[in-house]
Specification:
Blueprint lengths: L1 H6 L19 H13 L4 H7 L5 H12 L5 E2 H6 L4 H19 L7 E7 L2 E6 L6 H15 L2 E6 L3 E5 L5 E5 L5 E2 L3 E3 L14
Antiparallel strand pairs: 1-8, 2-3, 2-4, 4-5, 5-6, 7-8
Helix pairs in contact: 2-6
Amino acid sequence: MNRISNRLPFNFNNPKINHIDDYEFCRSTKIYLNQKRAASNLDEIEIMKESGYADLNKFRKHRELWHKLARDVPRGYLEALEVDYKILRFTIELDQESFEEALELELYPKTFIIRYMAAIYQTKDFGRKITEEEAVELVREISVKNKLRCCINYPSFKTIWIEPDNTITTTYYKPSIKFTKKWVKFGETGEGIGEISVR
């Protein structure tokens, strides 16, 4: 890792994670990709074609999602930007370190989500500072009483699923990277949970 860091033309300066709001999913990787995008000498049409796109509007829409790591990224796009895959793997390692640091935090969730049916959700405030352990127990009681699936969601970090049968499971969104023949995949983020909602 040190040999890679010595080759970097910039310093990521990852902030210390003191609070969950300090954590950002794949912060170092986003910085690297955005810097490669800014440094590219290719015009937009050339990059679009290298990415395998013919529709400029669709390309622009997807490109914004790529830089948020909210969509699989074409290898052609990364190669057009001259992204170094060794450095990309290194930035993921940095992001994994930040994730592990965030796991050590004591969390105080502000809201939880109730699922009434497919695509129908309601977000509710706890209304006071509450530990995660207290929050899970409170939401578990609501879930069992109303026979509804609930969750406590920390977008891009983890989701605690609370089922009406008393089952509690946690999904973690640890930064990861996977290369396929045409795509680079950065894993799930948990964004969008409970977006279609009722008030």
